């Protein structure tokens, strides 16, 4: 499937309605990047509703990469005992790269 | 051209704002937003944005229903918030024992929190507390200190805590009768972070680390294996009953940054995937555990890649009324 990307800030209630998400998948990524299906009228209407700013895939990827780099740096700075996979380790794995589809 | 009036014998209502108590099939024109609206029945389940939490956090507890949910703990604190279906309100006081990854049961005004972890490295907790809608009170502790994401369910006077982790994955089950915790029938597999929904005598477990696919149902006496999740997951958000449940998101070994948006539906026999998933891939979130499978909410958690989330997503199952909007040009 082909996708389009935009940036928009999630204001909470009403940002995504059931009548929208039941028609197409809206996916969020770091940096307030949102992925929607390309060539989809309903998706375009949603972007308009949330005052989204369209980004090319390359621009969106750059935003995501920058956010991931921040979280990776934060993880790298953790003490070693917090990086193990025991205990609450499922939440302590090093963030990996995110490649937009 | 045939008009609406000619077909249905009445005109489309011209209103400045959406009406309340809308009926299935009702059509109206919203003059403020210049949109034609119609109330239909959804054919698939879907997620919508809910109110934003005041405190973003990972590994929190949750209970209640979509319009009256409770969030507590997580992020190393005891912070407690109440959701009314629209917005979150911070409770003046939090858990007496601030913690992460605890079990949870009950409702917004009659809740229970038990077990969990404190600090780093982890100190496994046995503390149990009850919530009356405004404050937490210490109750007798569980017998085996441990942490878990999601493995508790039931009500404030009849809860069950299954499996977990205390230097190794556990099969231990404990039952709460409102006064004491006693050992129950062990879960079939030593796991942590599976979803557990239902009641003390009719519970359903699914997923969990490290198998990701194990499922089991409990009848108050014994556990019976159930079919695997459609998407192997741990630490997923869950709500519903033993015969009709929703599992959403979670830790996925195959997902980006180990998280998934997958929404899985249990019909009492099999798990299937909903066509659309959560907007945000997340794990270790809170959920309205006592919600029916047709209507629930998940909140907080760890998003992709590794940030605490304050977002809320509200689930509406198939067959429920929804308002569709048509832009008029």
CATH topology value of the largest domain in chain B = Neuraminidase
- Coarse structural class of chain A: alpha+beta
- Largest interchain contact: A-B, 40 and 56 residues
The overall average pLDDT of chain A, rounded, is 89
For the residues shown, what is the average pLDDT of chain B? Answer: 92
- SSE run of chain A: EHEEHEH
Write a concise synopsis of the structure shown:
The complex is a heterodimer of chains A (101) and B (329). Chain A is an alpha+beta fold.
Structure description:
- The complex is a heterodimer of chains A (101) and B (329).
- Chain A has helices spanning 18-21, 41-49, 57-76; strands spanning 3-7, 27-29, 33-37, 53-55.
- Chain A is of the alpha+beta class and 101 residues long.
- Chain A has one domain (3-91).
- In chain A, strands 2-3-1-4 form a four-stranded antiparallel β-sheet, with helices on both faces.
- The longest helix of chain A is centred in the middle third of the chain and has 20 residues, at 57-76.
- The mean pLDDT of chain A is 89.
- Chain B is 2% helix and 42% strand.
- Chain B is globular, with a radius of gyration of 21 Å.
- The model of chain B has no long low-confidence stretch (mean pLDDT 92).
- Chain B is mainly beta and 329 residues long.
- Chain B has one helix spanning 4-8, and strands at residues 13-15, 27-30, 35-41, 46-49, 61-65, 68-72, 80-83, 88-90, 103-107, 110-114, 117-118, 123-124, 128-131, 136-139, 152-155, 158-165, 169-176, 181-183, 195-199, 202-206, 215-218, 223-225, 237-240, 245-248, 263-266, 271-273, 282-283, 286-287, 295-299, 302-303, 307-308, 312-316, 321-327.
- Chain B has two domains: 4-41, no CATH class; 46-316, Neuraminidase.
- The longest helix of chain B has 5 residues, at 4-8.
- The interface between A and B is large, with 40 and 56 residues.
